[in-house]
Amino acid sequence: MVWLWLVGCLSSDWAEALDYHIDRTLIPAMRVTPRVAPGGIPRTFEALVLSPGAVQAPTWEVCGLYEGRTARIDEECFEEPSLITPIGTGERTTWTPPSIDVACSYDHTGIARDCWSSFPVRAVAEGPGGVGRAVLPLSVMPDDSVVWEVAGPSPVRIEVVEGAPAPGAEVLLEATTTGEDRGQVFRWYVDDGVLLGTGRTAPWTVGGGRVTAHNRLRIPQKYDGRLRVVVVVDQDGEQSWAVKALQVTP
What we know:
Elements: H1 2-18, E1 26-33, E2 36-38, E3 43-50, E4 59-63, E5 84-89, E6 92-95, E7 117-127, E8 130-141, E9 156-162, E10 170-178, E11 186-190, E12 194-195, E13 200-201, E14 205-207, E15 210-218, E16 225-235, E17 238-248
Parallel strand pairs: 2-8
Antiparallel strand pairs: 1-3, 3-6, 4-5, 4-7, 7-8, 9-10, 10-15, 11-13, 11-16, 12-15, 14-15, 16-17
């Protein structure tokens, strides 16, 4: 059974590594700020929406929302339409969860572990090639809790460090973010071409509070125009991303 699980995980990672073309509408990353807070505190939701053409503004919805008592709901909730509540539209939207005013018992850390609630929030975007969806958990603490001060999304930068974008050319791309994690995974997406390092790469260098990753992009022979390169990183559950448009000219 262990071997079957391991093969399944490797197969899943490999499939994701090869599925890096923006040939349909997808939402590969999303985030909420602040990540943890009591009800009544505005939360800002952001989604990275990628598509080969024009796409409708994404809609946001929460499922299984309970007011006045705690609940922990998973994303299977979305299978029941009557439990879904629309909360906004756009790649960035703000919504204020209702208060959860319940009596809580606190442990030695001062955190009411028995009283926090979690609801799935989903972004949905319709465009060429289908519908993109992504879900994140929304944590809501009791009313007498404080907002958790969690560091915001880490900046991500993409640069061409070798070669020039041209039909049939090969360019070396470098993605940089903050941190010291040697296990940091960089996820890559492109409009077209071949990523020689695939859509998942490990760090190239780590040090001085910076993590960099390299990938080589082989541009198609007849490509002409804008070619997007997208990188997504996940650090401690916080997703960050960058989009860079290369202008490919003969």
